[in-house]
Amino acid sequence: MVATLDGPGLTVDEPLDVRPGRTYLAVLQKQGRHFFDRDVVEKVFRDNAEHPPLGRWLLGIASVLGEPFEVLLKGKDPTDHYVLAGRLAPALTFAALVGLVAGAAGRRWGTPAGVAAGFAMAILPRSFAHAHFGALDTFLSFFWTAALLAGERALRSPRPVRAMAVAGAVWSLALLIKIHAWFLIPLLGIWSLVRLGLRRALGAMAVWFVVGVSLYWAGWPWLWYDTGNRLRAYWGTGVARTTILVEYLGRVYADRDVPWHYPWVYFAATVPVGLHALGLIGLARAGKDRRREPFPLLLVGSILFFLVLFSTRIPVYDGERLFLHVFPAWALLIGFGFGWLWETVFTSRRGRVLLGGILAAQAIGVVSMHPFGLSYYNALVGGLPGARWLGLELTYWSDAIDRVLLDRLARAARPGSSAAMAPTLYPGQGIETTGFHRGLARRGLILQDDPVAAECEWVVLSHRRAYLRDNLMDRLHRRGRLVATRSRWGVELSALWHVPSSSD
């Protein structure tokens, strides 16, 4: 995976997550123990307090450590963010997640189940794609899964109260990534009641909560001062925030107005069909074996909880991204189903070769879509062409504006020509993309943001259709020339357009 980190283009969130991490390290090196003084904390965390800092620390460490290698490979980054080096952290975390899922399934249900669960996790196209980006989502997938597994294991131990203290420490790491980790409270709370009864469950959960929240507070200096107001503001980020537009079934919605079935459709449509079949077998076995092996029911509950949660008025967008952390649980159920088939149905050598071949064939999607795995759709919706016909988002994070497309711009455009990127979701996104590519800046080609795209000679287009302006598209189709595209399965995901000036 490390060898393919430079495949997809710079995504929307990466500079916003890597930059704070580098700032943390730079200020810590300069200030030493004064890093934790109130005035320093105010300066360091104020503009990035929408998420806790652990994921950004990891990105910052990877970016700083990998910076010399990125300079060697690509040259100096004019933005000084070194996002490609930061991508090492989620890539390594994804490898750890695959190992975590494989180990958990293997210990419970045997080696075949463990291999299948780990393989399924590794080839889930959208999870694999997210592991290439210097953002928080892969971290959440790993730490959420680790906290869920640690809590479940602690509740099975002979001394659950003591074990839950350790599980609480693991939970604190998930809390320090994203707000989603707070929702482990009802999940493990209900599970502890089922496993331990009321009195013991209250004791175990109290220890888990106190340890987890204490370490969470200790790990986020922003909360050390004015704690109550800042916690309320943090929880308010899920309510009071910029509205994001979503294309869904041919219409554009505000994120809070997306139909209730949006998360269910994306869960169903973004996993290879064969893996879904194995997962459904695991789901069926979970119901039948619930007395002997109740753990799969917890996995099912964790998935359903978030699908139901995002079926409400809570904002949801970017396809599967906001509930990406449920897919490791599905991978475990896939392993559970595969293990049952291996042990009870496909018992002959020929049958097991066939079953293994079916599992291996599910990797076609991740291979054929790379490096644009965020655009993967399965056969239930007709693949990417079917998703286009249904009016689902073809791409949402600008990853299809990749090195290949920008190399073409660098070769085709005169030095100093006006160029822009569309759409852009925050000021400076075009400049960040220019810095990530390097070759553009060396030729004096600086990508401007969407607002001036209608005036530029060159336009780099990402097909996030909810944000493409009619006047820009009209200009491109009326006066422009399509120079290059990036596509998969015959579906255009990004494009380079040239609009000659009147003097040309």
Report the sheet with the most strands, covering strand number, pairing sense and barrel closure: 5 strands, mixed
Q: Estimate the strand proportion.
A: 5-15%
Helix content: 55-70%
- The total tally of domains equals 3
Specify the structural class: alpha/beta
Specify the number of helices: 23
SSE order:
HHHHHHHHHHHHEEHHHHHHHHEHHEEHEE
From the alpha carbons, calculate the radius of gyration and give it in angstroms: 24 Å
Distance between the termini: 44 Å
Point out poorly predicted stretches: none
Principal-axes geometry comes out as globular
Mean pLDDT: 95
How many E-type strands? 7
The spatial strand order of the largest sheet comes to: 4-3-5-7-6
